[in-house]
Amino acid sequence: MTSPVPFSTVLMPVPECPSSIHVEPQDLHHMVSTAFLTALLLTGSAERAEAALLQAKGVLGLDNTSGEALLRRAVNAAIEPPLETVEQPSEDLERASSSLPCELRRVLHLRPALRHCFVLRFLVGLPREVCARLLHLEVPQIDERARTAMLELPTIQKNGTC
Fold it and tell me: Is the pTM of this model over 0.70?
């Protein structure tokens, strides 16, 4: 098993904030919410998203980090393969879906490989080369998976949602 590529090796490094800098509560709420939403979309599970966020927070500590650094660590933790390769229960997807706005619910029902590419490429806005490094793929594979995800999203039907 390979470990995720740290964002710091593919994006500009984020300067560390001194621990004496005070983070406003609304900024802290926004950065944690953004990181959690991204992890939720990547994992398709509220429990795994929470674990990714806790892992990111544990590595960084919220007192001395930027929102960008927290998001980077949360994404790395979220795309790590689960220890067991059991298929994700549909209850996880339904529970995760219920906490999302209508526009994002269908994203959870993409196959994980397509979902990872779509979320990182279009929702997070990472360059395709960065997505390729994070997901251990070639750039043309990122393009193909992202394109397939865009074509599949309108066809996903969920009973009684949106």
Answer: yes
Q: Report how far residue 104's alpha carbon sits from residue 64's, in angstroms, rounded to the nearest whole number.
A: 31
- Domains of the chain in sequence order: 25-91 (no CATH), 101-162 (1.10.10.10)
**Residue 69, exposed/middle/buried by CB under 10 A (0-12, 13-18, 19+)?**
buried
Q: pLDDT, tens digit, for every residue of 77-117?
A: 999 876 555 556 667 777 777 778 888 888 988 999 999 99
Could you read off the pLDDT of 19-48 as tens digits, one per residue?
434 456 667 778 888 899 999 999 988 899
Q: What is the DSSP string of the chain?
A: -PPPPPGGGTSPPPPPPPTTSPPPHHHHHHHHHHHHHHHHHHHS-HHHHHHHHHHHHHHH-GGG--HHHHHHHHHHHHHSPPSS-PPPPHHHHHHHHHTS-HHHHGGGGS-HHHHHHHIIIIIS---HHHHHHHHT--HHHHHHHHHHHHHHGGG---TT--
